[in-house]
Specification:
Helix 8 links the parallel strand 8 and strand 9. The chain contains eleven helices and twelve strands. The protein has two domains: 131 residues, Rossmann fold (3-Layer(aba) Sandwich); 119 residues, Rossmann fold. The strands form three sheets. The chain has a five-stranded parallel β-sheet with strand order 2-1-3-4-5, sandwiched between helices. Strands 7-6-8-9-10 form a five-stranded parallel β-sheet, with helices on both faces. It has a two-stranded antiparallel sheet with strand order 11-12. It is globular, with a radius of gyration of 24 Å. 42% of the residues lie in helices and 15% in strands. It is of the alpha/beta class.
């Protein structure tokens, strides 16, 4: 064998080529960043109890990430605004690479904390945009299945009065309430809708009380935007549309279906970015649309045979049009009237 000595330039080229070959092997022939095998630490900070539907959907997705992506996951629930910054800082100081949660009531607090830890990824529910370099946002864009649910309500009401019991008239809730009513009006121009806002994200007794008042006023199909409404519907034997999660178990004879928010597509993508070391501040809201698998209509369960075939056909046709991009549900964030 004839030996030879590499000069400095050739040595650099050799190292570069062999290094690229190693990357290609590790990434399956792609020059995309290789995902680290390190188990990343993820923490969630929630303002409400874990059973509150909005928070629960984030929590469920993070538990799935723990099982399927191997993350280390912990959380704090029912965190008051006065404690929000302290708990966020404690997680950041302990080396958690991703901190998430529901920051709506503590929006400014969460953003201030994030600025102090630029190497930590923060992703919170928000109605405002992301902030460089490390504060990403998401939201529950489930107005599409809310519209489909409204179509069902419009067809199933006998009194032509339906109702919505929601937390408060903020954009994120207004767009669901308005989409629900718009869907009902499409199939039933005579329908009227009552709107009640309880002023809290989690107050089941107050939500139940508001639902009872609507039922007494003639509403026979209610959109349970908050916990507590389904309980009233079960007691009064009127129909209900659930929200955020599949809540058929709360009243199998009462809950027809409802919009479901699936945070798994969002969490899976965000975790992959953090693992790969390429996280940037983004608006991840698009992952909550039906086309991305982040929203859908809950199964009919017992109503699979009870719901009229013509109603199911109407809803299925409109759903497919939404997925195909040939029908767009308007985003109306004005306060419902």
């Amino acid at each position: 064998m004839i030996g030879f000595k590499m000069d400095r330039g050739w040595r650099r080229l050799f190292l570069l080529v062999t290094g690229m070959a190693a990357v290609l092997i590790l990434t399956g022939g792609s020059l995309q960043p290789a995902i680290s095998a390190e188990k990343i630490k993820v923490a969630a900070v929630f303002e409400t109890p874990i059973e509150e539907p909005w928070v629960n959907q984030i929590h469920v997705a993070l538990l799935k990430a723990k099982n399927e992506l191997g993350i280390e996951y912990t959380w704090s629930e029912s965190v008051k605004a006065a404690d929000f910054a302290r708990i966020m800082r404690e997680y950041a100081e302990k080396g958690y690479q991703l901190i998430t949660g529901d920051a709506f009531g503590a929006e400014r607090i969460a953003r201030r904390v994030a600025r102090d830890y630029p190497k930590t990824a923060f992703v919170f529910g928000s109605g405002i945009g992301p902030a460089e370099p490390n504060f990403g946002v998401f939201d529950n864009w489930i107005h599409e299945p809310a519209y489909l649910s409204g179509m069902i309500a419009g067809k199933m009401t006998k009194s032509n009065i339906i109702g919505v019991v929601a937390a408060m008239p903020i954009p994120e809730i207004n767009r669901l309430s308005n989409a629900f009513y718009a869907g009902a009006r499409e199939v039933n121009p005579k329908v009227q809708c009552k709107f009640s806002f309880i002023g809290s994200f989690f107050d089941p007794p107050k939500a139940k009380e508001a639902a009872m008042a609507q039922i007494e006023a003639g509403a026979d199909v209610l959109y349970a935007e908050r916990f507590g409404v389904v309980e009233a519907c079960v007691e009064k034997k009127v129909l209900a549309i659930s929200n955020m999660s599949d809540q058929s178990n709360l009243g199998p004879e009462t809950v027809i279906t409802g919009p479901v928010w699936d945070m798994w597509p969002t969490i899976k993508y965000v975790v992959s970015l953090v693992q790969a070391g390429v996280f940037t501040a983004q608006d991840f809201g698009g992952f909550s649309y039906m086309s991305k698998g982040g929203a859908y209509l809950a199964p009919y369960h017992k109503w699979e045979t009870k719901l009229p075939a013509e109603v199911k056909e109407l809803v299925e046709k409109r759903k497919q049009e939404i997925l195909d991009g040939t029908f767009r549900v308007d985003i109306d964030e004005s306060i419902p009237k």
